[in-house]
Specification:
The structure is a single chain. By secondary structure, the protein is mainly alpha-helical. 46% of the residues lie in helices and 8% in strands. It has a domain of 38 residues. The protein has a two-stranded antiparallel ribbon with strand order 1-2. Strand 1 and strand 2 form a beta hairpin.
Length: 72
């Protein structure tokens, strides 16, 4: 935003495209930070590491892994 206001002081005009791009960038960063927090999972407790599977067997916890996520 500092760049936008410095340019306004120099030219006396607002660059709406620059404002849009700055706001868009800030919102993407905020959204990424929010999703990162929402998608953090703790390792399950020992008594929650096996669950019944629809096939009749037990599904066993292996590990948490990172995954890249692409959103709109």
């Amino acid at each position: 935003m500092r760049v936008i206001f410095n340019a306004r002081r120099k030219t006396g005009r607002l660059d709406l495209e620059a404002i849009e791009m700055a706001v868009r960038s800030a919102m993407h960063q905020a959204g990424a930070a929010a999703l990162t927090q929402l998608l953090q999972f703790a390792t399950p407790a020992a008594d929650q590491r096996s669950i019944p599977c629809p096939c009749g067997q037990q599904a066993h916890y292996r590990e948490l892994r990172s995954k890249s996520l692409l959103t709109a």
